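Slack export, channel: ligand-projects

TW: morning all. Re-posting the request from yesterday since it got buried. We need the structure predicted with the small molecule present, not the apo form. The ligand is zinc ion; the SMILES is in the block with the sequence. No rush, but it would help planning for next week.
GE: picking it up
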Amino acid sequence: MSAAAGVPCVLCAQDGGRLIWRNDALRVIDVGDPDLPGYTRVIWQAHVREMTDLTRAERTEFMEVVYLVESMQRHWLKPDKINIASLGNQTPHLHWHIMPRWKEDPWFPDSIWAARRDDEPRRHAHWKERLGTVSAHEAQYFAALSARLHES
Ligand SMILES: [Zn+2]
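GE: finished. pasting the full token output, ligand included:
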């Protein structure tokens, strides 16, 4: 499928990150952002514009995977908050960003698409410390998430 005539779709051509799991409808990706360990995307495989273009059953399937990601992030990464966002202005694939957030992270309390605040030295030192702890659990989080998805 192509997004527009002659323009290949990047999310049809590539997974868009490290593939954790997929089925015919969905895939789950490790975004691999070193500044935000555990950042995960759930991507609808087909080109669909809006959530309301999906059937009720498809929406449920989609969101159940998003909520599984959220619950696994809570368990393994112990974030202060989880941000869930769907924008999709640059790709014809519906997708959800599931972002664990910490009070010391480079953008908190703004969205991760805002300007970074880690030029504040105190924040930077606290974040380095917490990032070490979180990063130590990131591989366990993705392994556990993968296991749960593969058994579903
Ligand atoms: Zn595509």
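GE: first-pass observations. Residues 39 and 99 are 5 Å apart (CA to CA). Strands lie at 2-4, 7-8, 18-22, 26-30, 40-44, 81-85, 95-101.
TW: perfect, thank you
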